[in-house]
């Protein structure tokens, strides 16, 4: 498996490598000197580095991944094929390289597929484990039983999804009738009121969706006007309960400032409190919410309360700061500001969502870190006064995750967070499809939307009031922003799939989701998570504080091996590896899967260093006890 040094997308490469290893194949992943050479493949010295690597590892099948500029991807692939062909490594009667495959963005895949007429096999994204192996030339009979059986649940759900789209009944779905209550659609309306006064004829999940037009060809005012039209259209249609404003990066990072000469970065360019009021007015009777600010976080929360009666606040704690380039705050300062904002939000009585676990997964974290980060955030929110907590679970993250692993991961997260519930702390489950889950084909993506809806319903399969909120990701996600008609269609697919899946479930016609394999996966995850959380609480003073959550990250308790930052501050956080195995993401040290004991002991040994880093970066003139 080879990529360029500049392309940081590695999860797909490692996932494919893990599958091949599970089939008994040896896999070599390009080291940095080979990645550097791939970027400069025109140079003879770089070409020799690549050929030497192929010879050293006796490589017979070569995969190239490039998920950045499509034109560059096509050029590099062409140069790689030419090099191998001209040197006698590819083609002919006895080639060293028997097959070449490519993974990248859709435009690059289409050009390469057309140019090489199938001689270079293509990964367009979203392939199942079996599909991935077959594209790479693994005979079906050589695919292990564990992979075939592990993927069977996904196949069953896909068959269900295809049936929903083929039948087309979703197109005729009418907007639901809601129970009227005095506060409905007013500035006194709340998420809890919507949940408690939901729909006539039985409970249905609250439907939330993210929307917002953007065009470089339109003025800021014109875009705001178009968005108000969208809001009015969505509110009138009656399918959407909660509108999430897809605000621009500048709206989050430079609200109320002069934007002249600053790149907007996409999204709705809201820059005044009055403009938020206009959006709320146009969106009625929907509830409305938006991103938190990346600076002046409490002030922005106050503005959202006044202007859009924000249905719930979402804060990212460790994220949307210097760590990921989305905001100006240093990590500790971000944690402090976010927790102080949660304390302020608690005075309003509004719910809080901590937009956390999937951001760890985006940076290569293992499934245990996904769960633990969600729990830590929930317990911190409770400590700082939150009464209603929205627990977001992003499925298909990474998208190569097997469905049975998503069930085990989701159930473990829900179980340990639900244990925090008491008379003053309510947990509301919100599920959604993965950010890069959908394939860039509209009909296929519709099937995926129906499929993932069934997966959501199987997390808590006997509870008809779960999930309480579904964040509907539109089927056009991989291609373009969803217009109101596509968004409403996506909701119709989701609601139809959920209703039909529950009907079939009552008849015993859906997959068994309480198998021994799923139970074992859940027990293993839960046992490890509880032991690690206990060790953290015993090792880190005041864990659920800005200082404690900072030390947890810097001490390596929440591994993020694909974090882009090169700062020495995060050396322990990045100092792990992860890999896909058996449909899930596990923690490694030099590609060896680590035990829970090893993980805990290593993190405990990091704590003195983490304390030193915190003291000298943030508390030079203070005494830390």
Please characterize this protein's 3D structure.
This protein has 625 residues and is an alpha/beta fold. Among the domains are: 2-143; 536-618, no CATH class. It has 23 helices and 15 strands. Helix 14 (331-348) packs antiparallel against helix 21 (546-554), helix 16 (367-383) runs parallel beside helix 17 (403-418) and helix 16 crosses helix 20. The radius of gyration is 25 Å and the shape is globular.
**Spatial order of the strands forming the largest sheet:** 7-6-5-12-11-10-9-8
Alpha-beta content class: alpha/beta
Shape annotation:
globular
What Rg is obtained from the alpha carbons, in whole angstroms? 25 Å
Number of helices: 23
Largest sheet: 8 strands, parallel
How big a fraction of the residues is strand? Answer: 5-15%
Distance N terminus to C terminus? 48 Å
Proportion of helical residues: 40-55%
Spans of at least 5 consecutive residues with low confidence: none
Task: Please state the average pLDDT score.
Answer: 93
Total number of strands: 15
Question: Strands, helices and their partners?
Answer:
Blueprint: E1 2-3, H1 11-22, H2 32-39, H3 44-56, E2 61-66, H4 70-86, E3 99-104, H5 106-116, E4 120-123, H6 129-135, H7 145-150, H8 152-167, H9 191-196, E5 206-211, H10 220-237, E6 242-245, H11 249-253, H12 273-283, E7 287-290, H13 297-308, E8 313-315, H14 331-348, E9 352-354, H15 357-362, H16 367-383, E10 388-394, H17 403-418, E11 426-432, H18 442-457, E12 469-472, H19 484-506, H20 516-539, H21 546-554, H22 571-574, E13 577-581, E14 584-589, E15 592-593, H23 596-618
Parallel strand pairs: 1-2, 2-3, 3-4, 5-6, 5-12, 6-7, 8-9, 9-10, 10-11, 11-12
Antiparallel strand pairs: 13-14, 14-15
Helix pairs in contact: 2-3, 4-5, 8-18, 8-19, 10-12, 12-13, 13-14, 14-21, 16-17, 16-20, 17-20, 18-19, 20-23, 21-23
